[in-house]
Design goal:
206 residues, mainly alpha, 2 domains, 10 helices
Length: 206
């Protein structure tokens, strides 16, 4: 059996390793770190007005993020709001701490919908009560998987539904930078198929 690298991959292409060690890639990583600090500082200060950025995907994500946190700020107590900022800050930090091969070709910053611990529907909260929406448990997730399979959904449709309904992926996958079921299906196809099949079979036997 091939020995895995610390990142979890079997091997890297030599050309990729050279690129990850290049000044250009390191500069891009530093730009991401600087951007993360600015975003978090803006969120903490409540500087949430969308800026007239150029029309790019990155700036669309930033403006959508600020709009989301603006809604949270209106609905949450100050301490609960800062808890949400801390959750997003940790998600960015976790992403930037991944090995270069796990960060390569990943967009930055994270779309807030990829951070499943965040309150995704602030409109469902009672104004200023604060608190975090309870996340579905593993048992609830597995029950939902079995229900979707029983209804005849393909594994892709199961993943898309889990993604839409904000079910979290298994924690080992999150450690690899995979935060949504859509990402999991694209990057860990075999593991996803195995998990869904096992859950569906186990539930059917009970």
């Amino acid at each position: 059996m091939d020995k895995l690298l610390p990142c979890g991959h079997i091997s890297h292409h030599e050309q990729n390793e050279k690129r990850w060690a290049s000044a250009e890639f390191l500069a891009k990583t530093q730009e991401s770190r600087d951007l993360a600090r600015k975003i978090i500082a803006d969120l903490k200060k409540g500087s949430l007005r969308p800026a007239p950025y150029p029309d790019t995907m990155q700036n669309d994500i930033i403006n959508a993020l600020k709009a989301h946190f603006s809604r949270l700020k209106k609905q949450l107590s100050p301490s609960a709001y800062l808890e949400q900022v801390a959750i997003y800050e940790k998600a960015l930090s976790d992403l930037l701490s991944l090995p270069a091969c796990r960060r390569d070709n990943r967009g930055f910053p994270l779309d807030y919908t990829e951070v499943v611990e965040l309150i995704q529907r602030p409109d469902l909260l009672t104004p200023r009560t604060g608190g975090r929406q309870p996340m579905p448990t593993v048992q609830q997730r597995n029950a939902r998987i079995a229900e979707l399979v029983k209804a005849g959904n393909t594994h892709l449709n199961v993943c898309l539904t889990l993604n839409k309904e904000k079910y979290s992926v298994p924690s080992p996958w999150r450690g690899e930078g995979i935060l949504t079921w859509k990402q999991a299906y694209a990057q860990k196809g075999g593991s996803v198929h195995s998990l869904i099949s096992k859950v569906a079979t186990k539930k059917a036997l009970h």
